[in-house]
Write a structure and sequence with these properties.
Blueprint: E1 10-13, H1 17-29, E2 33-36, H2 42-59, H3 65-70, E3 74-77, E4 88-91, H4 97-108, E5 116-119, H5 126-130, E6 139-144, E7 153-158, H6 164-176, E8 180-185, H7 192-195, H8 197-208, H9 214-223, H10 231-238, H11 240-253, H12 264-271, E9 306-311, H13 319-325, E10 329-332, E11 341-344, E12 350-353, E13 366-369, E14 380-385, H14 391-403, E15 407-410, H15 419-435, H16 441-451, H17 458-465, H18 467-480, H19 490-500
Parallel strand pairs: 1-2, 1-4, 2-3, 4-5, 5-6, 7-8, 9-10, 12-13, 14-15
Antiparallel strand pairs: 6-7, 9-11, 11-12, 13-14
Length: 502
Amino acid sequence: MTALDLSSAVAVVGTGTMGQGIAQVALVAGHPVRLYDAAPGRAKAAADAIGARLDRLVEKGRLTADDRVAAARLTPAENLAELAGCGLVVEAVLEQLDVKQRLFQDLEDVVAEDCLLATNTSSLSVTAIAGALRAPGRFVGLHFFNPAPLLPLVEVVSGFATEEAAATRAYETAQAWGKTPVRCADTPGFIVNRVARPFYAEALRLYEERVADPATIDAVLRECGGFKMGPFELTDLIGQDVNEAVTRSVWESFFQDPKFTPSLAQRRLVESRRLGRKSGQGWYAYGDDAPRAEPHTAGPEQAPQSVTVHGDLFAADALPGLMREAGIQVGRGTDTPSHPGSIELPGGARLELADGMSPDAAAEPTIHFDLALDYRAATRIALAPSSRVGEPALKEAIGLFQALGKKVSVIGPAPGMVVARTVWMLVDAALDAVGREVADAEDVDTAMRLGVNYPLGPVEWGRRLTAYRVAEALDLLHDEYPTGRYAPSQALRRQAVREEYS
């Protein structure tokens, strides 16, 4: 083990929410901690605040009295010179490159040569910060997630000049602190903020196209896709200004790659100062008297007595069994090139799993239904009828899924719908990151599960759906939107070929 010895002091520079959280983590792990802030008096106030939080943890039984006594080794520092004996310095100051560079240049004149230097930046280049240093090899990113004492994930980021020994020491130190570290290369957004962009972007695009309202999109992603929160409620919690700034930073860092294009609708929200929970209004209104936004939910309809299943439903192959359990007679039809997998309703309309094309592209009346993480557990299904579908056929489809115990949201005829389109793009982003050696597949999935609480890592989701089908669906989306946004990455295409010939 090359983790920092517990006898070595840890310094935290910056006493905001993240700085205090990181200091608390190091303190509870057993290190002496020195806290510094350039503003006079802030380090002392922050130390008092951390002590009060530890006292509350003792009261709640989450920290023993002995551990609280051991964690009393927190010292406010009045100047950088007092950090001279530290074995690790973690910076959590203003997200401005020149500010961070000057800080670490000053620290180089203070700390020993074997002191590990780390930044908690979430948006700036670790390589760029280290570029101002005499010895950039000992510099690493340690990106904690807020609140740092509670969330387990830490992204350990190696800049272009970071030495392997420094990255390993940072990784093992985070691990010794009880965290779950993942290693990644210095790339815009690191793992989580890079791979997660489609989760927000696709929802915003669907809203801009007036496919569905925010409450309905959120409900479909939660109740069908298995996500803990929908993107509109989540960005309201994060802060619209914060989320939009990260999106814009990643987009600009990737030289305005269309895959990362920001949303005009979110820009307008930020410009109007509707920033979410902190301002009392974002996509939703907040406050005791604020009305609750409800998703569009279809009224009760009669279920058909029988349906005919044609071909293979692939990711939706659980549906025939669920329909039989609900007392619906399921017949078997034939697999035809025009309908490789579909559910034929008594009135003649076809139900098909979203495939990247608009339901209007089909020659026959077609209703697309969305991808579910688990069709048995899902409590809501989205349906997108083509313009050729009449009201009786739509009612049959609604009644069918209601008979399976699902709420039904009818949305506009969007290619890829809501969950499917979002998941395909997450899979593509994850495999692209793996293919470019940003991180390995296991670390990408760990980061997305722990960092943003996804129900399934996107690489694993891609395995379940198969890379071939994800690439095929994105090709169809690319035909619908020929901007480059939906063009499958080379990593996804290579994986699809490997699966096809394995």
